[in-house]
Design goal:
The chain has 186 residues and is an alpha/beta fold. The protein has a single domain (6-185), classed as Rossmann fold, CATH 3.40.50.150. The chain is 35% helix and 22% strand. It has 8 helices and 6 strands, in the order H-H-E-H-E-H-E-H-E-H-E-E-H-H. The chain has helices at 6-14, 22-31, 45-55, 84-92, 105-112, 130-136, 169-173, 180-185, and strands at residues 35-39, 64-69, 97-102, 119-124, 144-155, 162-167. A 6-stranded mixed sheet has the order 3-2-1-4-5-6, with helices on both faces. Strand 5 and strand 6 (162-167) form a beta hairpin. Helix 1 (6-14) crosses helix 2, helix 2 (22-31) packs parallel to helix 3 and helix 5 packs parallel to helix 6 (130-136). It is globular and about 45 Å long. It starts with 5 loop residues before the first helix and ends with a helix.
Length: 186
Protein backbone atom coordinates (compact mmCIF):
# COMPACT_ATOMS: atom_id res chain seq x y z
CA UNK A 1 0.00 0.00 0.00
CA UNK A 2 1.44 3.39 -0.97
CA UNK A 3 2.29 5.86 1.77
CA UNK A 4 0.02 8.46 0.17
CA UNK A 5 -3.29 7.37 -1.28
CA UNK A 6 -4.91 8.96 -4.30
CA UNK A 7 -7.04 11.43 -2.34
CA UNK A 8 -4.18 12.52 -0.11
CA UNK A 9 -1.98 13.03 -3.18
CA UNK A 10 -4.67 15.19 -4.80
CA UNK A 11 -4.95 17.21 -1.61
CA UNK A 12 -1.18 17.73 -1.34
CA UNK A 13 -0.71 18.54 -5.04
CA UNK A 14 -3.64 20.91 -5.49
CA UNK A 15 -5.14 22.12 -2.19
CA UNK A 16 -2.58 21.88 0.63
CA UNK A 17 -0.95 24.64 2.61
CA UNK A 18 1.55 26.01 2.10
CA UNK A 19 0.56 26.27 -1.54
CA UNK A 20 4.21 26.92 -2.51
CA UNK A 21 4.96 23.21 -2.02
CA UNK A 22 2.33 21.95 -4.45
CA UNK A 23 4.66 22.00 -7.51
CA UNK A 24 7.07 19.71 -5.64
CA UNK A 25 4.44 17.02 -5.17
CA UNK A 26 3.32 17.29 -8.79
CA UNK A 27 6.96 17.01 -9.96
CA UNK A 28 7.36 13.81 -7.94
CA UNK A 29 4.37 12.29 -9.69
CA UNK A 30 5.34 13.56 -13.14
CA UNK A 31 8.97 12.36 -12.91
CA UNK A 32 8.40 9.27 -10.74
CA UNK A 33 11.03 10.63 -8.33
CA UNK A 34 13.02 8.08 -6.35
CA UNK A 35 15.97 10.15 -4.99
CA UNK A 36 15.48 13.48 -3.22
CA UNK A 37 18.08 15.93 -1.91
CA UNK A 38 16.77 18.80 0.21
CA UNK A 39 18.80 21.76 1.43
CA UNK A 40 17.02 22.96 4.56
CA UNK A 41 15.02 20.35 6.44
CA UNK A 42 13.51 22.77 8.95
CA UNK A 43 10.89 21.01 11.08
CA UNK A 44 10.77 18.05 8.66
CA UNK A 45 7.11 18.32 7.67
CA UNK A 46 7.79 18.97 3.99
CA UNK A 47 10.54 16.32 4.02
CA UNK A 48 8.12 13.68 5.29
CA UNK A 49 5.49 14.60 2.70
CA UNK A 50 8.06 14.49 -0.13
CA UNK A 51 9.13 11.01 0.95
CA UNK A 52 5.54 9.80 1.33
CA UNK A 53 4.55 11.04 -2.13
CA UNK A 54 7.62 9.38 -3.70
CA UNK A 55 6.67 6.14 -1.92
CA UNK A 56 3.37 6.25 -3.77
CA UNK A 57 5.31 5.35 -6.94
CA UNK A 58 8.09 3.18 -5.48
CA UNK A 59 8.55 0.66 -2.70
CA UNK A 60 9.34 2.45 0.58
CA UNK A 61 12.96 1.16 0.72
CA UNK A 62 13.59 2.28 -2.89
CA UNK A 63 13.08 5.94 -2.00
CA UNK A 64 16.33 7.68 -1.02
CA UNK A 65 16.22 10.98 0.83
CA UNK A 66 19.17 13.18 1.76
CA UNK A 67 18.51 16.16 4.02
CA UNK A 68 21.16 18.82 4.49
CA UNK A 69 20.61 21.21 7.37
CA UNK A 70 22.37 23.00 10.20
CA UNK A 71 20.28 21.03 12.71
CA UNK A 72 21.63 21.96 16.20
CA UNK A 73 23.94 24.64 14.76
CA UNK A 74 20.97 26.47 13.18
CA UNK A 75 20.45 29.99 14.41
CA UNK A 76 17.09 29.86 16.20
CA UNK A 77 16.42 33.46 15.24
CA UNK A 78 16.32 32.57 11.52
CA UNK A 79 13.77 29.75 11.30
CA UNK A 80 12.85 26.90 13.61
CA UNK A 81 14.37 23.52 13.05
CA UNK A 82 14.83 20.19 14.73
CA UNK A 83 17.78 18.29 16.08
CA UNK A 84 19.66 15.76 13.98
CA UNK A 85 18.57 12.94 16.29
CA UNK A 86 14.89 13.90 16.09
CA UNK A 87 15.05 14.35 12.30
CA UNK A 88 16.61 10.94 11.88
CA UNK A 89 14.05 9.28 14.13
CA UNK A 90 11.11 11.02 12.45
CA UNK A 91 12.17 10.39 8.85
CA UNK A 92 13.57 6.89 9.36
CA UNK A 93 10.12 5.80 10.59
CA UNK A 94 8.81 6.32 7.04
CA UNK A 95 10.81 3.34 5.77
CA UNK A 96 12.88 5.16 3.14
CA UNK A 97 16.67 5.22 2.95
CA UNK A 98 17.53 8.34 4.92
CA UNK A 99 20.83 10.23 4.96
CA UNK A 100 21.06 13.39 7.04
CA UNK A 101 24.08 15.63 6.58
CA UNK A 102 24.73 18.36 9.13
CA UNK A 103 26.27 21.59 7.87
CA UNK A 104 25.76 24.51 5.56
CA UNK A 105 25.16 23.80 1.84
CA UNK A 106 28.75 24.31 0.73
CA UNK A 107 30.39 22.21 3.44
CA UNK A 108 27.82 19.42 3.18
CA UNK A 109 27.82 19.19 -0.62
CA UNK A 110 31.61 19.39 -0.82
CA UNK A 111 31.66 16.20 1.30
CA UNK A 112 28.75 14.33 -0.27
CA UNK A 113 28.06 15.48 -3.85
CA UNK A 114 29.90 12.55 -5.45
CA UNK A 115 27.73 10.09 -3.52
CA UNK A 116 24.52 11.88 -4.53
CA UNK A 117 24.75 11.33 -8.29
CA UNK A 118 21.46 10.45 -9.95
CA UNK A 119 19.37 12.85 -7.86
CA UNK A 120 15.85 13.09 -9.27
CA UNK A 121 14.62 16.04 -7.20
CA UNK A 122 16.82 18.77 -5.69
CA UNK A 123 14.98 21.19 -3.37
CA UNK A 124 16.51 24.37 -1.91
CA UNK A 125 14.77 26.16 0.96
CA UNK A 126 14.83 29.94 1.15
CA UNK A 127 16.48 29.94 4.59
CA UNK A 128 19.90 28.88 3.26
CA UNK A 129 22.95 31.07 3.86
CA UNK A 130 23.42 32.98 0.58
CA UNK A 131 27.23 32.85 0.56
CA UNK A 132 27.36 29.14 1.34
CA UNK A 133 24.68 28.38 -1.24
CA UNK A 134 26.52 30.40 -3.91
CA UNK A 135 29.61 28.26 -3.36
CA UNK A 136 27.57 25.03 -3.21
CA UNK A 137 26.12 25.39 -6.73
CA UNK A 138 29.50 24.20 -8.05
CA UNK A 139 28.70 20.67 -6.83
CA UNK A 140 25.10 20.45 -8.02
CA UNK A 141 25.54 19.62 -11.75
CA UNK A 142 27.48 16.42 -10.97
CA UNK A 143 24.52 15.26 -8.86
CA UNK A 144 21.91 15.69 -11.59
CA UNK A 145 20.90 13.64 -14.63
CA UNK A 146 19.04 14.80 -17.72
CA UNK A 147 15.58 14.38 -16.12
CA UNK A 148 16.41 15.87 -12.71
CA UNK A 149 14.24 18.67 -11.37
CA UNK A 150 15.65 21.53 -9.31
CA UNK A 151 13.32 23.74 -7.27
CA UNK A 152 14.48 26.83 -5.40
CA UNK A 153 12.27 28.57 -2.86
CA UNK A 154 12.01 32.31 -3.49
CA UNK A 155 9.78 35.10 -2.30
CA UNK A 156 7.06 36.03 -4.78
CA UNK A 157 7.44 39.71 -5.62
CA UNK A 158 3.68 40.18 -6.09
CA UNK A 159 2.39 38.95 -2.74
CA UNK A 160 5.55 38.37 -0.67
CA UNK A 161 4.74 34.68 -0.12
CA UNK A 162 7.26 31.92 -0.77
CA UNK A 163 7.11 29.96 -4.01
CA UNK A 164 9.20 27.07 -5.36
CA UNK A 165 10.46 27.91 -8.83
CA UNK A 166 11.88 25.26 -11.15
CA UNK A 167 15.41 25.94 -12.36
CA UNK A 168 17.02 24.42 -15.41
CA UNK A 169 20.67 23.46 -15.92
CA UNK A 170 21.50 26.70 -17.72
CA UNK A 171 20.32 28.73 -14.70
CA UNK A 172 22.58 26.69 -12.45
CA UNK A 173 25.53 26.97 -14.85
CA UNK A 174 25.40 30.77 -14.69
CA UNK A 175 25.91 30.59 -10.92
CA UNK A 176 29.12 28.57 -11.17
CA UNK A 177 32.26 30.67 -11.54
CA UNK A 178 34.59 29.57 -14.35
CA UNK A 179 32.04 27.15 -15.78
CA UNK A 180 32.02 26.58 -19.52
CA UNK A 181 28.47 27.96 -19.81
CA UNK A 182 29.33 31.07 -17.81
CA UNK A 183 32.41 31.74 -19.98
CA UNK A 184 30.41 31.24 -23.16
CA UNK A 185 27.80 33.77 -22.03
CA UNK A 186 30.43 36.44 -21.31
Amino acid sequence: MPAVGHLKYLYLAYFSDPSAERPLYRAIRRRQVRTIVELGVGMGNRSARLIEVAQRYHAPREVCYTGIDQFEARSSSVTPGMTLKRAHRTLKALGAKIQLVPGDPWMALSRTANTLTGTDLFVVSADQDAESLARAWFYVPRMLHENSQVFVEEMNTQDGKPIFRPWDRSSIATLIPNSHAARRAA
